[in-house]
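#struct-queue
[09:14] JT: dropping the first one here, sequence first, then the structure tokens:
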Amino acid sequence: MAIGNAQQLVKETGDLSVPLAIRNAPTKLMQEIGYGENYKYSHNYENNFISQEFLPKEIVNTTFYEPGNNAREKAQRDFLKARWREKYGY
């Protein structure tokens, strides 16, 4: 399961830093050091989606969820593939 995969990865990698691009930048200092820089608000794009990375650099491209072989999860796989294309091999 995805949650089990995520928990196992945390046990293996420990506490990884949140990428600067997705950190909130409520102060001028945080803005100056790059918090929130290059973040793209998904709802401003077609289908409310824009390809961007939210994982720490140490685990970029990690797949946690693999859709199963039933009708509902096949639909989910098709949806993910339409958004992510070949990134995660859906």
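[09:21] JT: and here's the second one, same format:
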Amino acid sequence: MTTQQVADRLVALCRQGEIQKAMEELYAEEIVSIEPPQAPTKSAKGKKAVFEKGAQFAAMIETRHGGSFSNPVVGGRYFSTAMMLDATFKGQGRMKFDEICVYEVKDGKIVWEQFYF
């Protein structure tokens, strides 16, 4: 798949709430996931560790009120999308996350992602 195809597929699956499926299908085994210092989860390396990080984040959510993903912007082997999540987090109340997600694609798979919020 091209970078555009990977980007379009990721956004389509995320918009359907199929984030786990997107990770299984599109992430390389050696994926690197970088979180900012203030993130509730830590950066991770490797598909298994990134899946565990995602499960840890999902477990923190009490109620999901809404969310959105922008159309991807592609440049070479990189793409980005804006993501918004409106959720009530266990013990923390309702919060709205607005972030930019940046990805790198090699050989049709996402090998690197970094989140900014």
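[09:30] RK: nice, looked through the second one.
[09:31] RK: Residues 36 and 116 are 6 Å apart (CA to CA).
[09:31] JT: good to know. Residues 3-15 form the longest helix (13 residues).
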